[in-house]
Amino acid sequence: MSTSDKLIQMVIAVVIFYAVIAVILLVTQRLRSRSGERIQAAAFLGPSLLLIGVGLLYPAIVTVWQSFHGAQTFDPPWVGLDNYKDLFTDKQQLTVLRNTLLWVVLTPILSTGIGLVYAVLVDRARFEKFAKALMFLPIAISMVAASIIWKFVYAYRSNEQDQIGLLNQVLVWLHLDTFNFLLEDPWNTFFLIVILVWIQSGFAMTLLSASIKGIPDDIVEAARLDGVGGWKLFRHITVPSIRPSLIVVLTTITIATLKVFDIVQTATGGNFNTSVLAYEFYRQNFVSGNQGLATTIAVVIFLLVTPVVIYNIRQMRKLEGR
Amino acid sequence: MSAADPTTPTTAAPVSAAAAAREGLTGRIASAIAVVIAILWTIPTAGLFISSFRPEADVKSNGWWNVFTDPSFTLKNYQDAFSGGSSNTGLSTNVINSIVITIPAVLIPISLATLAAYAFAWMKFKGRDVLFVAVFALQIVPIQVTLVPLLSLYVDPPFNLMPLAGRDAPAGGLYELWLSHTIFALPVAIFLLHNFMREIPGELIESARVDGAGHVQIFSRIMLPLMMPAIAAFGIFQFLWVWNDLLVALVFSSPEVQPLTVKLVNLVGERGQDWQLLASGAFISLVIPLVVFLSLQRYFVRGLLAGSVKG
Fold first, then answer.
1. Are the Cβ atoms of B63 and A162 closer than 8 angstroms?
2. Which of A85, B92, B109, B288 fits B182 for a cystine, CB–CB 3.0-4.6 Å?
3. Is A109's pLDDT higher than 90?
């Protein structure tokens, strides 16, 4: 397809879509009665509910069903909980679970910690806006681009050669041996985590900074008059005041971390024992062709995410209620 | 005592001065830490950015920090990345693909979600609350859970419908991508826009109804203009999600319509040592989202604070 073909197809799709919407609105426009309102509601909601039902609900149910079946794509046999057993006993899968655990524990804590410290440090500073923008920008770029940026920082060459990766150059300057950051298991997982921390800290910083600015001035003033300052102010006034926001940030980053796929795919391709659940799902289904195990992994991600999301939404409600 | 007189003011002064000094010192340490973090956050990007302008031979032989002692720059990397240079790896097709994928994948879910959110917020019908909670709850479904069955629906749909994937797919398989992105965005979008819509005072709607306006008029004349900031906020999020997405694109896009992210990942796999190419490619991919982001940052932060973060 040529460029103009694609653009024409895009315009056609958008025009058709809005034409359908316009027809729906015009047809239901004249309805005023009670039963008319029911028809209008169906017209307004119909397209969305149909898409959600067919595209989310039905596939989710099929996935759960498939997770109890074998690897084959066509007519796989019922295997009960075998896939789940594999996931929690197979040596390779245990590494995947270990890595996922590392990601989920470290990423939210580090991103939130760094974001919070930075938000406090630049609060009311002279270049606050600019300083915040620096940490905020990685949010806008893709995880693929972020991974390329960091892969370059980690680039490895042996000791005798000129280094092109900044981190190994720092090691050389310190008269240390160069290190293959993305190859050496288990440390490589930590260096991948750094990439996500680099991305998510900006998100944490923005939410927490807004929250810090919401702390009433008189509370801070009163504390200062009592001689509370610096670290104690941070520990006893700032952190407790923004506790609900902290929880929302921590849980939101946890959810994002459980689904991280792009970074592993770009930085190591899942090699060198760096795979995580969300990556293993893709590999099992589209590379190894093991649909049973892939859907099982998807279900496990679902089960892990659900309690965090519920807790997250509850906290968000509380935050809004205040 | 004559000696005592001068000591009183001087002892008083050092105390406050010490306090000031301590404040100043923590202030200075604080700024130092802030500066260090800011530098750590900027250097990786700066390094790749500088490298994207260095000649291939330089990029491959020494680090980008050498430009400060031995500067040499070129635009050849960008030309090569765009047109493919000696080998056939041009990114220009993928830029078009990303644009063609993203625009409908932003417009369609936002429009549908605005309609649905209006119905949930201001129309009365049986089962409204149950339906809304169901849509709200579906936010928690990770897209991984839906990908495999969704793909088989596209490849082999029931009721003799037209397959949206495969060689004969309409628009080269673009419909798969538009639909998938729409589906994945809807629950969050409906939930958020509903929250915004409930904040609009009910009297406004009531008085319009008394004046004889129907739902369609209220929706298009009153709601849409009032909702624009919220729609803009969600629009930026959806734009960034779709433009930066890798997983949905890897699963659903045929080679002909691969977006930039997929192309970049392939480049990493095939030409992992060609840093000059990866660097310029990465920067081509992030120019558009960065411009959109910076020009509409106000709405973005508002959306972030309202909780529009797709799980």
1. yes
2. B109
3. yes
